[in-house]
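User: quick one, sequence for these C-alpha cells?
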C-alpha cells in the first residue's frame, strides 16, 4: 500500500505535470509542517549549473497548495491560487533543495470557518529553501486566495 506522502505526491504531479518533470518529492505533510525537495538535474538547472529560479519559485509555491489540500473542508467548492510570491535569492542553489513551511492548526480552523461564512479566505505563507548543507538559499513569501473560482456548489 502506498504511503500518504506518495499518494499526495502523485496527486500534485497529476494536477501539475511540471512537478513530475522537475522531480518533486513530498517529504512532509503533517498538520502544521510541509516540506518538499527538488533535485539538481538537467531538468532543474540553469545555464550556469545551479537550480533555476523558476524551480525555486515552484518549490516555494506548491507549499500553499499542500496546506490547502491538507486542511480544506470543502475542496470541491474552493480552489487556491497564488496571488503573488516574493522570492529572495540568498545563495546559489548548487545541490538538491528542500522547501519547508509551517501553517498552524488555528489558522486552518479559521480558514474553514471564514470560507463557510464568506466564501473567501486569503493567507500568507513563508517558506525557507535550503541546500543539502542546510544553508538557506532562498526565502519565499506567498499570498494565496481561496475562492470558488470554478463556480461549483
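Assistant:
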Amino acid at each position: 500500500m502506498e504511503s500518504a506522502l506518495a499518494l499526495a505526491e502523485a496527486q500534485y504531479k497529476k494536477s501539475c505535470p511540471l512537478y513530475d518533470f522537475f522531480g518533486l518529492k513530498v517529504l512532509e505533510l503533517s498538520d502544521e509542517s510541509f516540506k518538499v525537495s527538488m533535485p539538481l538535474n538537467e531538468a532543474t538547472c540553469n545555464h550556469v549549473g545551479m537550480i533555476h529560479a523558476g524551480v525555486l519559485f515552484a518549490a516555494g509555491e506548491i507549499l500553499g497548495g499542500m496546506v490547502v489540500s491538507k486542511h480544506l473542508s470543502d475542496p470541491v467548492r474552493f480552489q487556491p491560487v497564488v496571488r503573488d510570491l516574493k522570492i529572495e535569492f540568498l545563495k546559489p542553489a548548487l545541490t538538491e533543495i528542500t522547501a519547508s513551511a509551517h501553517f498552524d492548526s488555528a489558522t486552518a480552523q479559521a480558514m474553514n470557518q471564514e470560507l463557510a461564512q464568506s466564501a473567501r479566505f486569503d493567507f500568507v505563507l513563508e517558506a525557507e529553501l535550503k541546500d543539502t548543507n542546510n544553508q538557506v538559499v532562498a526565502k519565499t513569501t506567498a499570498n494565496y486566495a481561496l475562492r470558488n473560482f470554478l463556480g461549483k456548489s
